[in-house]
Specification:
This protein is an alpha+beta fold. It has six helices and eleven strands.
């Protein structure tokens, strides 16, 4: 048994039950298999352990909170780019937990699971404990702090929605696409604070 700091991620597909009703069991099984392939591929690239696959959901554990948040954002992107899959949502929380016979137990695990259940489709909802453990996340945009009253959790949990910060990359691409024939070089008119 182990009781040290860990970061847990839970993910599940939004609207999966309705999709199963509408499209049948075989289609549902194919969707679950596709999700689990994405989960395994992304987890292995970020040093995460896939604790268990649960049909349209999965539980993962990381020893590093930064890696966990990066993993979650990458997973959302991967699933979003797969036209056969509905959106995935992710909940992340850091803290102590106990390992027993290949599974993990404790409040940290429960909070991560509950944050997943209140996240919106395509959202990565990260507790403030996980964000504090991660420190600087220069490539990540962090939303406003929200308090969540989670099922069977006695205290409200503060969490923030996160997403990859693509704003600077999109601006650069746009500026490069503007024809130079108009005699205006956007690069020479940029200031440290943005567009001058």
């Amino acid at each position: 048994m182990t009781a040290t700091e860990h970061t847990f991620l839970f993910c599940d597909l939004v609207g999966f039950t309705a999709l199963t009703d509408a499209e049948g069991d075989e289609r549902a099984a194919a969707i679950c298999a596709a999700l689990q392939r994405h989960v395994r591929a992304v987890a292995s690239g970020h040093g995460a352990e896939v604790v268990k696959a649960m049909g349209d959901a999965a539980m993962m554990r990381c020893s590093d909170s930064t890696a966990a948040i990066t993993l979650a954002l990458r997973l959302v992107d991967e699933v979003d780019s797969d036209p056969d899959l509905p959106p995935v949502r992710v909940g992340i929380h850091s803290g102590s937990a106990v390992s027993h016979e290949g599974d993990w137990y404790g409040r940290t695990v429960n909070v991560a699971s509950r944050l997943c259940s209140v996240a919106a489709g395509g959202e990565v909802l990260v507790s403030e404990a996980a964000l504090a453990a991660a420190g600087e996340l220069p490539a990540v945009s962090v939303g406003e702090r929200r308090l969540h009253w989670l099922k069977n959790v006695t205290e409200p949990v503060a969490a923030r929605a996160t997403e990859l910060n693509r704003r600077a990359g999109r601006l650069s691409t746009l500026l490069e696409a503007v024809p130079r024939r108009f005699g205006f070089d956007f690069g020479t008119h940029m200031t440290a604070g943005g567009t001058g």
